[in-house]
Amino acid sequence: MRFSTICRTHVLLRSPSYLLSFTVYVIMKINFLLIVKMKQQDIKFKVLSLKLKAWLSAFSPKLHYLLLIVFFLLFAVHYSLLAAHAAEIASVDVKIQNNEIYVTTSIKPDSKFIHELNSGLSKELIFYIDLFRIWKIWPDEFVTGRKLERILKNNPIKREHAAIGIDSNIQIEKKFKDIESMVDWGMDIADIKLINIKELEHGEYFVKVTVVSKIRKLPPVIGYLLFFMPENEFSISKNSLPFQIKSR
């Protein structure tokens, strides 16, 4: 039985028509299996793509916010480093005349400050002039102080140069022929009366001048979102030489 089957198979394989049919059958079988396998892989790929897309769509907003925060943090650090030496206080001079303490000070802006002002950006400077009493053991004691504001505005198109000075409740507006004279006025504080020495106790004192350049205010919503951004373009300070106040 087995021998006859083998003989029949041998005869059929020697037949050209059967051999062709058998070859076509094998090729179709192989193609069918390949197609089925490819479809299975395609379905797996589509499922994986859908899962990846869903994961990215869920994670993407968080990633965007994270990148935004990182970007602005780097910008804030970079900006702070650039502005660390943006300007310097040239001098803090103190004189006593008619029992009154007068302070004269000035700052030297850097080229970046002048360039931005020439470009049309307004600048707001705040001067804090504070009197301190020196103690050998205890920290220095704040006695009194004054706050002055200078707002500089330049319109390069109209060639208008205007400034505002604020001292307590007094506000003055000034116009200048050129930007240089406006900057000189804004940078110099001359003979500001601080206090009468009759109001002071015997001791050693000094005057500390702090100058802050404010960055232009952002809209409330943006300012709330970018709360980590610096509010000041620069903040610098300098002390005067110590001086004695004798007994009254």
Structure in words:
The protein has 248 residues and is an alpha+beta fold. The protein is built from 5 helices and 10 strands, in the order H-H-E-E-H-E-E-E-E-H-E-E-H-E-E. The strands form 2 sheets. Strands 3, 4, 5, 6, 8, 9 and 10 form a 7-stranded antiparallel beta sheet that branches. Strands 1-2-7 form a 3-stranded antiparallel beta sheet. Strand 3 (123-134) and strand 4 form a beta hairpin. The longest helix is centred in the N-terminal third of the chain and has 67 residues, at 16-82. The protein is flat, with a radius of gyration of 41 Å. It starts with a helix and ends with a strand.
Sheet-strand content, in percent, reads 35-45%
Distance between the termini: 140 Å
Poorly predicted regions:
1-13, 221-225
Number of strands: 10
Provide the structure class: alpha+beta
Major sheet details: 7 strands, antiparallel
Name the helix and strand elements from N-terminus to C-terminus, one letter apiece: HHEEHEEEEHEEHEE
Q: What is the 3D shape? A: flat
Report the total helices. 5
Helix content: 40-55%
Using only C-alpha atoms, the radius of gyration works out to 41 Å
Sum up the structure in keywords:
single chain; 248 residues; alpha+beta; three-stranded antiparallel beta sheet; 5 helices; 42% helix
In a few lines, what is going on in this structure?
The protein is an alpha+beta fold. Helix content is about 40%, strand content about 40%.
